[in-house]
Amino acid sequence: MKARVTVTLKSGVLDPQGKAIEGALRSLGVDGVASVRQGKVFDIELDGSDRAKAEALLKQAADKLLANTVIENYHVEVLG
Amino acid sequence: MKSAVLVFPGINRERDMARTLRLVSGQQPAMVWHTEHELPAGTDLVVVPGGFSYGDYLRCGAIAARSPIMDAVRQFAAKGGLVLGVCNGFQILCESGLLPGVLMRNENLRFICRDVFLKVERSDTPFTRGYNAGQVVRVPVAHGEGNYIADGETIARLEGEGRVIFRYSGPDGMIDPNWNHNGAINAIAGIVNDGGNVLGMMPHPENHVEAEIGSTDGRGLFAGLAEVLKRAA
């Protein structure tokens, strides 16, 4: 079973990398970008086929290691 | 002083730290591999050194913070044992929950490697008794992610309880954004936990302990610790 965990910075947390990308897009002439926030994506391959179990496992993974919940939010998704 | 220096894959400042501990205290520290579940018997100081554990993958210090030895360090700290984390060690202590907050990418996005000035806010801690309150010391930094932040409530508590021990300053002790090279909130360079027995700091005092290097300003921290631990023994 394929799954994806997306980790993003909480709003209000300074994101210097996002700011740098935002500036680069502007200097490349990509207009209309109001702001950029950078995050992380984890593509995870899971054993078994129980979706509820998979979601619980992914939450555990995110809480224990993938995200630092002081500054980051996460979103888990079982892709099937 | 029976000290233990933790060693994680990818770390590279553990030998500087061990050398300094030996020079200042006269005793050789134990080097403790991350897969160990216990600290050596009689350990009275644990040092988490600097240097890019696990290549800074995922987040600085995140993977090291979840290693088996850190459970032993948590138990040691809960009993009042002294723990010092420098640079990546500070990041590991934050990631492991021993200290609040987190170290973000430097505000200017650059890796900074140079001497900075630190104002010692208090001298009544085991880590700073070798200094005077308000004293300014010159020590090096070498980090890409030293920009300390925490939520407003945590910062207010740290400040209110006098837990900010070191701040980036000018040579005269002035706190000014120009001297706050990584953008840390309130120019915070080092904090202690609520028990006052766990210190995390971004700069490297262990690299300024010999006159040949050009400064011995870092020596006070280790000399102070050695004295506290000699008296306790």
UniProtKB/TrEMBL annotation, chain A:
GO MF, one example: ATP binding
Assembly information from the UniProt record: Part of the FGAM synthase complex composed of 1 PurL, 1 PurQ and 2 PurS subunits.
UniProt lineage: Bacteria, Pseudomonadati, Pseudomonadota, Alphaproteobacteria, Hyphomicrobiales
Keyword Metal-binding: no
Alphabetical list of InterPro entries matching this protein: PurS, PurS-like_sf
Function according to Swiss-Prot or TrEMBL: Part of the phosphoribosylformylglycinamidine synthase complex involved in the purines biosynthetic pathway. Catalyzes the ATP-dependent conversion of formylglycinamide ribonucleotide (FGAR) and glutamine to yield formylglycinamidine ribonucleotide (FGAM) and glutamate. The FGAM synthase complex is composed of three subunits. PurQ produces an ammonia molecule by converting glutamine to glutamate. PurL transfers the ammonia molecule to FGAR to form FGAM in an ATP-dependent manner.
Keywords: ATP-binding, Cytoplasm, Ligase, Nucleotide-binding, Purine biosynthesis
Designated name of the protein: Phosphoribosylformylglycinamidine synthase subunit PurS
Pathway: Purine metabolism; IMP biosynthesis via de novo pathway; 5-amino-1-(5-phospho-D-ribosyl)imidazole from N(2)-formyl-N(1)-(5-phospho-D-ribosyl)glycinamide: step 1/2
GO biological process: 'de novo' IMP biosynthetic process
Source domain of life: Bacteria
E.C. code: 6.3.5.3
Cellular compartments annotated: Cytoplasm
Reactions this protein catalyses: N(2)-formyl-N(1)-(5-phospho-beta-D-ribosyl)glycinamide + L-glutamine + ATP + H2O = 2-formamido-N(1)-(5-O-phospho-beta-D-ribosyl)acetamidine + L-glutamate + ADP + phosphate + H(+)
Any one Pfam family match given in the protein's UniProt record, by short name: PurS
Primary localization: cytoplasm
Record GO cellular component, one term: cytoplasm
Tagged with keyword Ion transport: no
Family (UniProt): Belongs to the PurS family.
TrEMBL record, chain B:
Gene Ontology MF terms: ATP binding; glutaminase activity; phosphoribosylformylglycinamidine synthase activity
One Pfam family named in its UniProt record: GATase_5
Subcellular location(s) per record: Cytoplasm
InterPro entries according to UniProt: Class_I_gatase-like, PRibForGlyAmidine_synth_PurQ
Record-annotated active site: C87, H204, E206
Major localization class: cytoplasm
Entry keyword Acyltransferase: no
GO BP term (any one): 'de novo' IMP biosynthetic process
GO cellular component, one term: cytoplasm
Keyword list, A-Z: ATP-binding, Cytoplasm, Glutamine amidotransferase, Hydrolase, Ligase, Nucleotide-binding, Purine biosynthesis
Pathway: Purine metabolism; IMP biosynthesis via de novo pathway; 5-amino-1-(5-phospho-D-ribosyl)imidazole from N(2)-formyl-N(1)-(5-phospho-D-ribosyl)glycinamide: step 1/2
Protein name (Swiss-Prot/TrEMBL): Phosphoribosylformylglycinamidine synthase subunit PurQ
Organism: Undibacter mobilis
